[in-house]
Design brief:
159 residues, five-stranded mixed barrel, 2 helices
Length: 159
């Protein structure tokens, strides 16, 4: 688990380059590995909500990585222009926060974005790697294999 700072002050004492993002899989995000580290993941944008109040603007992106849904959020004093259509494929970079709760025995996690530049559109992956194609393809191949096996088994009985 990662400690959580509730109230705090900071003082900038210098400048340093931002840490390089670690590419991660949906499994690594779901398991809570790399908590507190800068990570990046390729995902599909399911939903994007934004709202403002007296203290600033809040953005929430709901992403699908593999079969998992991950939230990414960004808070700012001023609103930003987000040009992201729903179902766009994006590479999201942010600090992985493990929130301490769990849903269906998985830790609840979210990516904390550092700026709108942390969300970049990428080309869609090959269609055969997407879950909505992969599951029916595996089912069809299983049925075909069973059918061929049944035909071969019964044709050997006829001989």
């Amino acid at each position: 688990q990662v400690p959580t700072l509730i109230f705090g002050e900071y003082r900038r004492i210098g400048k340093a380059p931002l840490p390089a993002a670690r590419p991660v899989s949906a499994f690594e995000v779901r398991s809570g590995r790399h908590a507190g580290q800068v990570v990046s993941i390729d995902a599909r944008l399911l939903n994007h909500r934004s709202w403002g109040n007296g203290s600033g603007s809040h953005e929430l992106l709901m992403l699908q990585a593999g079969e998992d849904v991950i939230n990414a959020s960004w808070d700012s004093e001023t609103a930003a222009a987000w040009d992201l259509p729903i179902d766009a494929h994006v590479r999201v970079t942010g600090v992985l926060e493990v929130e301490g709760g769990s849903v269906k025995e998985r830790p609840t996690v979210q990516l904390l974005l550092r700026s709108p530049a942390d969300v970049v559109r990428i080309p869609a992956p090959a269609f055969w790697t997407q879950p909505q194609f992969r599951k029916p393809a595996i089912a069809a191949l299983s049925v075909a294999a069973l059918s061929v096996g049944w035909i071969v088994w019964h044709s050997s009985d006829c001989v």
